[in-house]
């Protein structure tokens, strides 16, 4: 018996409702968190360090008490145990300054119930940033879930991704919202479904992009029934922990399941990238980069208590939480960009540019910082007015020299980190300069095809317009029509856009090809068609720019040679006409002489 999939309409309605509820949850938490997180930056605390002995239903062991702890006033000491009063919540919520906290103090075999007031403690900037990012991550995840459901609701891969984002939308839970039944239910569902979120991420990676997996992904799908069973067991185990009000991340099984799902997801995406090319390969690169980064920071977040115990690494522990939230946000935006965007930016190029501009900015800041330090220590002014003038002179010098120095830094870093790209581009530009001295059209076409193939590593064909308006090919054949009809969609778009074009937008069968127009006075005299790159990657933006420039310049050279050829042909034709005219005039004179001779002969005979 086959199970009929849910209709697209019903799917969209259900996801829209669940996404709206997630946004309501975020709004409720934001209302309660606004005052402590944004306005005051103060939270309530008992100033105590404890050991979790099995969740809220088991007493916590007091490890140490700070001098300002309100528990000292009720006689608590290190080694005692405390049991919080039962409240409808899975975890202890974020307290507010002055909030009354009821608990049972177990000390020296005796127990007594006490009520203490939480004391104010400022929240660190990274922690506040992490809390705000947590709400932003949930809000954006819910919105992306609705967008993907409405745009891509027909395939299993996109439905799995929708559910993954939807679960992320509920992941913030309630931190500052006071304990209540709604808080308990939402926290139970959101925390209990975390393992299901990892499961849906795996399903998406296996079936993306068209629900027709091949290669390794097809073999992995055969094991899905076993994976379903493991997931069901992991979810039941997590729910059991939550019903006991225990932190699921304190148990190694959840981290093990998350790690296993992450490896499966990355393996499936790697296999998809390996078997794809063109735009699909770039989408896989984005997905791998985003999910891989998020997986790394999730691991750091879930193991931060161990990281803090390592000597020398304790100072970085407070930065892990906000970095984890930023990584999640980046992952969500990156995945949505790769899935919903018609064309995606070259991932490798984006990483290279990010590193480049980061280094460039850091070097600039360090340089100007050194200049300011030297000025302050080598040039001492007792007069405040002279010191102000010095600061003004430094600021003016920085303003005037910034762009020039920035250009020098950029040029140096470009040569240092992207030498191979620059060397390849320099050879192409050198060829452009030499091409102007090639004197015949066939030689220029052959040299251009050879150089474009060297630059790109792909086959190249140059199409030139013929007298009938169609385009005939010259060069190493690519998998494209020859000749190309003037009304082919590719030719139409090239005439309209007047710019480089990724052919897979118009001919999906030719993924990865790049068409570069040969233009003169906005007329399409022809175009160069480059095949897909040997490594399956798309052409980078900088490659497209220099190739467009090169083909444009070659197009001008071709136009000039064709004009010279036409001029020579016209000159030869004019010479032939002139010779023909002379011959005709001579023939006319001969005929005239014959006519005169015949006339005289006829007159003499008469």
What does this structure look like?
By secondary structure, the chain is an alpha+beta fold. Among the domains are: 8-22 and 130-344, no CATH class; 356-417, no CATH class; 441-555, Beta-Lactamase, CATH 3.30.450. It has helices spanning 8-40, 125-151, 156-169, 181-192, 194-207, 215-221, 224-243, 252-274, 278-302, 304-309, 317-340, 347-378, 384-417, 419-435, 441-456, 489-497, 541-605, and strands at residues 42-45, 48-51, 60-65, 81-84, 100-107, 110-117, 119-122, 460-465, 471-475, 501-502, 514-520, 523-530. The strands form 3 sheets. It has a 5-stranded antiparallel beta sheet with strand order 2-3-4-5-6, with no helix packed on it. The protein has a 5-stranded antiparallel beta sheet with strand order 9-8-12-11-10, sandwiched between helices. A hairpin with a 5-residue loop joins strand 8 (460-465) and strand 9. The relative contact order is 0.06. The model has no long low-confidence stretch (mean pLDDT 79).
List its salient traits.
five-stranded antiparallel beta sheet; elongated; 11% strand; 606 residues
List the topology elements.
Layout: H1 8-40, E1 42-45, E2 48-51, E3 60-65, E4 81-84, E5 100-107, E6 110-117, E7 119-122, H2 125-151, H3 156-169, H4 181-192, H5 194-207, H6 215-221, H7 224-243, H8 252-274, H9 278-302, H10 304-309, H11 317-340, H12 347-378, H13 384-417, H14 419-435, H15 441-456, E8 460-465, E9 471-475, H16 489-497, E10 501-502, E11 514-520, E12 523-530, H17 541-605
Antiparallel strand pairs: 1-7, 2-3, 3-4, 4-5, 5-6, 8-9, 8-12, 10-11, 11-12
Helix pairs in contact: 1-2, 1-3, 2-3, 2-11, 3-5, 5-7, 5-8, 8-9, 9-11, 12-13, 14-15, 14-17, 15-17
């Amino acid at each position: 018996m086959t199970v009929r999939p849910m209709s697209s309409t019903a799917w969209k309605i259900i996801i829209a409702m669940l996404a709206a509820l997630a946004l309501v949850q975020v709004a409720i938490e934001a209302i309660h968190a606004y005052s402590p997180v944004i306005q005051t930056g103060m939270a309530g605390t008992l100033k105590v360090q404890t050991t979790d002995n099995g969740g809220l239903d088991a007493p916590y062991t007091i490890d140490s008490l700070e001098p300002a702890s309100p528990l000292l006033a009720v006689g608590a000491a290190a080694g005692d145990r405390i049991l919080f009063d039962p409240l409808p919540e899975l975890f202890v919520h974020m307290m507010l300054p002055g909030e009354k906290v009821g608990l049972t103090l177990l000390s020296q075999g005796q127990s007594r119930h006490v009520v203490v007031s939480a004391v104010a403690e400022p929240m660190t900037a990274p922690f506040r940033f992490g809390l705000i990012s947590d709400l932003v991550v949930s809000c954006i995840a819910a919105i992306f879930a609705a967008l993907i459901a409405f745009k891509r609701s027909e395939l299993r891969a996109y439905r799995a991704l929708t559910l993954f984002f939807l679960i992320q939308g509920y992941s913030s839970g309630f931190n500052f919202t006071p304990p209540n039944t709604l808080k308990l239910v939402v926290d139970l569902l959101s925390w209990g479904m975390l393992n299901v979120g990892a499961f849906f991420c795996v399903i998406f990676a296996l079936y993306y992009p068209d629900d027709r997996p091949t290669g390794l992904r097809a073999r992995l799908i055969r094991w899905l029934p076993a994976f379903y069973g493991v997931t069901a067991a992991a979810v039941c185990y997590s729910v059991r922990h939550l019903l006991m009000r225990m932190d699921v991340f304190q148990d190694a099984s959840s981290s093990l399941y998350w790690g296993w799902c992450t490896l499966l997801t990355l393996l499936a995406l790697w296999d998809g990238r390996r078997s794809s090319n063109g735009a699909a390969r770039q989408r896989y690169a984005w997905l791998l980069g985003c999910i891989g980064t998020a997986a790394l920071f999730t691991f750091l977040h879930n193991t931060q208590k161990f990281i803090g115990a390592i000597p020398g690494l304790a100072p970085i522990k407070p930065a892990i939480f906000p970095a984890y939230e930023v990584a999640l946000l980046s992952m969500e935006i990156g995945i949505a960009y790769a899935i919903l965007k018609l064309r995606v930016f070259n991932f490798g190029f984006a990483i290279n540019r990010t590193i480049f501009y980061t280094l460039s900015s850091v070097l600039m800041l360090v340089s100007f910082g050194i200049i300011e330090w030297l000025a302050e220590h080598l040039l001492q002014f007792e007069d405040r007015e002279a010191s102000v003038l010095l600061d003004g002179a430094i600021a003016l010098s920085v303003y005037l020299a910034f762009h020039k120095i920035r250009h020098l830094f950029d040029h140096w870093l470009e040569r240092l980190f992207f030498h191979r790209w620059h060397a390849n581009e320099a050879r192409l530009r050198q060829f452009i300069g030499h091409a102007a001295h090639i004197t015949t059209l066939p030689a220029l076409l052959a040299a251009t095809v050879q150089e474009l193939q060297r630059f790109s590593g792909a086959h190249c064909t140059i199409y030139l317009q013929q007298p009938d308006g169609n385009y005939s090919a010259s060069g190493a054949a690519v998998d494209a029509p020859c000749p190309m009809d003037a009304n082919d969609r590719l030719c139409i778009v090239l005439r309209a856009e007047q710019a480089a074009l990724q052919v897979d937008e118009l001919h999906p069968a030719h993924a990865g090809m790049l068409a570069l127009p040969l233009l003169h006075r906005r007329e399409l005299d022809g175009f160069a068609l480059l095949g897909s790159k040997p490594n399956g990657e798309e052409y980078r933006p900088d490659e497209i720019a220099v190739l467009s420039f090169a083909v444009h310049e070659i197009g001008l050279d071709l136009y000039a040679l064709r004009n010279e050829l036409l001029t020579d042909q016209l000159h030869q034709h004019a010479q032939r006409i002139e010779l023909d005219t002379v011959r005709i005039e001579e023939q006319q004179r001969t005929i005239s002489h014959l006519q005169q001779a015949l006339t005289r002969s006829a007159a003499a005979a008469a």
